[in-house]
Amino acid sequence: MRLLLVEDDNHVAAALSAVLARHGFDVTHARNGEEALQALVPEGPGFGVVLLDLGLPDQDGYEVCGKIRKRTSTPVIMVTARSDVRSRIHGLNLGADDYVVKPYDTGELLARIHAVSRRTVHEDTTGSTEVALRLGPVHIELPTRQVTVDGSVVQLTRKEFDLLALLAQRPGVVFRREQIISEVWRTSWEGTGRTLEVHVASLRAKLRMPALIETVRGVGYRLVAPAA
């Protein structure tokens, strides 16, 4: 996923960009509001998420958020040291999709990024009968919840399909175990880790593609898109 990071502190931006890159993000860094708005022109590269720090040197971050929302529907996550409820409500009213208060946990930030991007994908595809994900020989029909490999239907349980669809929407991106449990099973990590491992093993066996879902030791899983 392409991500626009709007942050005036070069040291903070470099550290965060390195973390995001390790989790599969292609990060573009804008140092102020004007650079951010220039990066979001229609003919520019599309972004999956904008991570917007409110403490910018040239413009008020809230003002930048309003301008972003007028020109694109790209999800915006505000990052700020302002923790009061009024500030959060103001940001959400301007069109922000989420709000992260400094200091934040990197795992939480990654989960929020994935959450807003998935909500956008869902909203964009609701009601469509043509939405599908193609990963080499694997074809995933989201509306009908059908999966085929080389044209042959693969029977998956509900949770197996949800797990595959989650990983397939962001090929190459590492999903933390805690995040997968939260999104697919709608519960916390405790006591559910073994269930996740079983479902991953079952998917690998049913799809007959053991290398499709890669285990990232100590972190989680990612889907490795096969060759067409």
UniProtKB/TrEMBL annotation:
Its name, as the record gives it, is: Sensory transduction protein RegX3
**GO molecular function ontology, one term from the record:** phosphorelay response regulator activity
Query: What keyword terms does UniProt attach to this protein?
Result: DNA-binding, Phosphoprotein, Transcription, Transcription regulation, Two-component regulatory system
Q: Which residues bind DNA?
A: 130-225
The source organism is Streptomyces actuosus
Q: Which residues carry this modification: 4-aspartylphosphate?
A: D53
**OmpR/PhoB-type domain span:** 130-225
Q: Which GO terms describe its cellular component?
A: cytosol; protein-DNA complex
